[in-house]
Specification:
The complex is a heterodimer of chains A (116) and B (114). With 116 residues, chain A is mostly beta strands. Chain A is built from no helices and 13 strands. In chain A, strands 2, 4, 5, 9, 12 and 13 form a 6-stranded mixed beta sheet that branches. Chain A has a 5-stranded antiparallel beta sheet with strand order 1-3-8-7-6, with no helix packed on it. The mean pLDDT of chain A is 93. Chain B is mainly β and 114 residues long. In chain B, strands 2, 4, 5, 6, 9, 10 and 11 form a 7-stranded mixed beta sheet that branches. A 4-stranded antiparallel beta sheet of chain B has the order 1-3-8-7, with no helix packed on it. The termini of chain B are far apart. Helix content of chain B is 0%, strand content 53%. Chain B is built from no helices and 11 strands.
Chain lengths: 116, 114
């Protein structure tokens, strides 16, 4: 089955700096890679996602890159702000339909601290 | 986006009792829902895939007789933790996907077994 590895487990940056979180996956058939932000005691919130037919996607200060050959994808947050502090999870899935359940497998999580 | 509602948000139960958690898709039909468990400062671990009208598919290491899943309609899946013990205390969260789009999560249920 799919296995997702995420690094680092903790990341501390100064406000305004960039933050990068990296994930690798094992299932070459995975084709959908979302990133979630989770605050304590709350549900994960989707912040950006990428499909296997593109290599990069950007949404304001957040970007995700995907290298299918190497089976890794990364989250980039620029101009970090204190409110970006949270736990971030990457995930991977084959997608739904055609006999696939579309179950998401999560990385271990990264606790991001942005210091004012 | 689609809305997934989970109930209750938190529950405290005595050791040996059973607890039922409900997960509803409010504005879409979900033939498949997923149940995750999250221990403090850890990731979301997939427990099982809930399939409408058929048996759930459990991940390796998850006891199907302890974590009963029922998906009787296209908008409701339930997870029953039977004979709960303190080690079952955790954050349980459900999710559903609409086709190949993003997954939508319930609010989660904080279970404390005393």
């Amino acid at each position: 089955g799919e296995n997702v590895e995420q690094h680092p487990s903790t990341l501390s940056v100064q406000e305004g700096d960039s933050a990068v979180i990296k994930c690798t996956y094992s299932d070459s058939a995975s084709n959908y890679f979302p990133w979630y932000k989770q605050e304590l005691g709350k549900r994960p919130q989707l912040i950006i996602d990428i499909r296997s037919n593109v290599g990069e996607k950007k949404d304001q200060r957040i970007a995700v890159t995907l290298n299918k050959t190497a089976k890794h994808f990364s989250l980039h947050i620029t101009e970090t702000q204190p409110e970006d502090s949270a736990v971030y999870f990457c995930a991977a899935t084959r997608g739904g339909g055609s006999g696939n359940t579309g179950k998401l497998i999560f990385g271990q999580g990264t606790t991001l601290q942005v210091k004012p | 986006g689609a809305v997934v509602s989970q109930h209750p948000s938190w529950v405290i139960c005595k050791s040996g009792t059973s607890v039922k958690i409900e997960c509803r898709s409010l504005d879409f039909q979900a033939t498949t829902m997923f149940w995750y468990r999250q221990f403090p400062k850890q990731s979301l671990m997939l427990m099982a895939t809930s399939n409408e009208g058929s048996k759930a598919t459990y991940e390796q290491g998850v006891e199907k007789d302890k974590f009963l899943i029922n998906h009787a309609s296209l908008t409701l899946s339930t997870l029953t933790v039977t004979s709960a013990h303190p080690e079952d205390s955790s954050f349980y969260i459900c999710s559903a996907r609409v086709s190949n789009t993003e997954a939508f999560f319930g609010q989660g249920t904080r279970l404390t077994v005393v």
